[in-house]
Amino acid sequence: MVLKLILITIVLVAIVAFFLSLSIIFRSNGKFPNFHVGGNKQLTDKGIYCANTQDKLARKHKRAIW
Prior knowledge:
Largest sheet: none
Order of helices and strands: HHH
Shape: elongated
Strand content: under 5%
Low-confidence stretches: none
Structural class: mainly alpha
């Protein structure tokens, strides 16, 4: 009984993972989406940068981040 439930769960998770991978591949033309803060245009428009860029800007203006 428990073994049957585990097997069904594994099969369902495998099917879901397969379809999610297909959606990522076909939506982005074979490129994996960029989830980095520096690669996100909406965050850059709001003035939000990655930690390294924020540190560089703070050093340039001679003020601490915190």
